[in-house]
Amino acid sequence: MTEEKRAANFIEEFIDEDLKNGRYEAVHTRFPPEPNGYLHIGHAKALCVDFGIAKKYGGACNLRFDDTNPTKEDTEYVDGIMEDIRWLGYEWQNLYFASDFFDRLYEIACDLIRKGVAYVDDQSAEEMRKNRGTLTTPGVNSPYRDRSVEENLDLFQRMKNGEFADGSRVLRAKIDMASPNVIMRDPTMYRILRHHHHRAGDKWCIYPMYDFQHPIQDAIEGISHSLCSLEYEIHRPLYDWMVQQAGFKYPPRQIEFARLNITRTVMSKRYLRRLVEEGFVSGWDDPRMPTLVAMRRRGYPPEAIRDFIDRVGVAKADSEVEGALLEHCVREALGDSAPRAMAVLNPLKVTLSNWGEDEVDTLTLENHPDHPELGEREVSFGKVLYIEQEDFMEDPPKKFFRLAPGREARLKGAYIIRCDEVVKDENGEVIELICSVDRDSRSGSEGSLRKVKATLHWVAECDAREIEARLYEPILADENAVAEEIEGEDEANEAPAKDFTSNLNPTSLTVVRGYAEPAIADAEVGAKFQFLRMGYFCKDPDSTDALPVFNRTVALKDSWAKANK
């Protein structure tokens, strides 16, 4: 077995060991998002790991919303997350909200006070930061650390009853202010925060902190293996301490794996929120975003995302994955399923000199070269056509085999044409080609055996429908900019977001107008096609009857496959 293979299976190795020695009788995992935004591709990795492990071992996976910060959470995100999970092909065993357990969490906190391992602290946030110490110097005990159990219980109840101002007091765990692990230096368990909660309403003015709520909630649910990303490794001692002090008989085992980082992709929910709120993108579903709702709108198939996560594997060390690999997986999925059709995105007019004004030929084209079950469609061929501007050069280089003055090219599924004349505007720009058609060269006829070096896609004016195409590039101009900024970022601790917007790619979105055959324009929203020679496209919800809109999912060129042959 290779080292890569061992790394990909290390979670299963831990679980196999636990089942063998009887630590757990069954595998029970959970996927615990905070409903403060939409899931992105990084969450998809955790999602696939959590649900995939449960499925492999015949166990269960819960969906739990860790909704303990009411200032950023909303039912909109709850609904969106559930839709994303089902879209990826997973279903949860049980649905929980941390807020449904606030009463029990409060009682457990009171029990920890009675045990003498929790206390109410009156220090300001600035004083607490100052007294916490550094990585090289120990912290200083709070002057309120030795309050009696009775006083702490009274103060904590009064916190709950709303007698104190926001931020004036917190409940802290009493562990070790000299611990070399700063996380263990009397972490905060509860804070005072008056804010309407999306489920609990205004019942509570104190809310549990993640490092208290999360492990206790795992234990309440009977989770056997708490699978999380690598930045929580330093939190594991605190996770175990909380569960142990709360007295649970079968504590969950926390196992960390590497988070997913993709080149030229923003992988922080906080950064993504900035993109939305500051108007850099149109919303969480803007197809440039790495959110699952955006990928769905862009046309990514769910099986492509699962394939990508599977190829990346589960490792113990953080690394960066090429975005080209994700696009490769998308191409593979769409290549086998998306019907073919023709659209011209940067049109150049072609007039056939030897074709009648009202003459129309009806051609039958296959929808997929490898899947005859996908059927056929009819397109019209008339006197005026459109081809891509890049398929013509007036003075072509030696290896340019497409259309040029005096040169022939075949139109896909139709005829061979020859460029006889070039029409220019007053600025010298080519605006029209006058061509002649070889009537004996119709595809499927004996004359179709005549060979030329280029085949071009096209759309006939008599059949054409105007469309808008949105072409996407990575949202970051610099591959390494955000990867460097988010290194060591801890979203659970709400570290301040850094300014990364100067690295945004100004050409991440290009909008063009072109023409398409009716099969494309009349398709339903969400329909996916391969536009011949142009890429894979998906019909966008912004479409109208007058102007269908299509997002380019991926281009046809596969840089990852070429580099990994």
Return residue spans where pLDDT drops below 50 for at least 5 consecutive residues: 1-8, 481-497
Instruction: Please provide the count of β strands.
Output: 27
Give, in spatial order, the strands making up the sheet with the most strands: 12-25-26-27-23-24-13
Helix content: 25-40%
Q: Write down the overall mean pLDDT.
A: 93
- Please tally the helical runs, counting DSSP H or I stretches of 4 or more residues: 16
Structure write-up:
By secondary structure, the protein is an alpha/beta fold. The chain has a seven-stranded mixed sheet. A seven-stranded mixed sheet has the order 21-18-19-20-14-17-22, with no helix packed on it. Strands 4-5-6-7 form a four-stranded antiparallel sheet. Helix 8 crosses helix 9 (236-245) and helix 12 crosses helix 13 (323-337). The protein is elongated, with a radius of gyration of 30 Å. The two termini are 22 Å apart.
Q: What's this, in brief?
A:
The chain has 16 helices and 27 strands. With 565 residues, it is an alpha/beta fold. α8 packs across α9 and α12 crosses α13.
Note the main attributes of this structure.
alpha/beta; 7-stranded mixed sheet
Write the layout of secondary structure elements.
Layout: H1 3-8, H2 10-20, E1 28-31, H3 41-56, E2 60-65, H4 75-87, E3 95-97, H5 102-114, E4 118-121, H6 125-131, H7 149-160, E5 170-173, E6 188-192, E7 206-208, H8 210-221, E8 225-229, H9 236-245, E9 253-257, E10 260-262, H10 269-277, H11 292-298, H12 302-312, E11 319-321, H13 323-337, E12 340-341, E13 343-344, E14 347-352, E15 361-366, E16 376-381, E17 384-388, E18 408-411, E19 416-424, E20 430-438, E21 455-456, E22 459-460, E23 465-472, H14 481-485, E24 509-516, H15 518-521, E25 528-531, E26 535-539, E27 549-554, H16 559-563
Parallel strand pairs: 1-2, 2-3, 8-9, 10-11, 12-25, 14-20, 18-21, 23-27
Antiparallel strand pairs: 4-5, 5-6, 6-7, 13-24, 14-17, 15-16, 17-22, 18-19, 19-20, 23-24, 25-26, 26-27
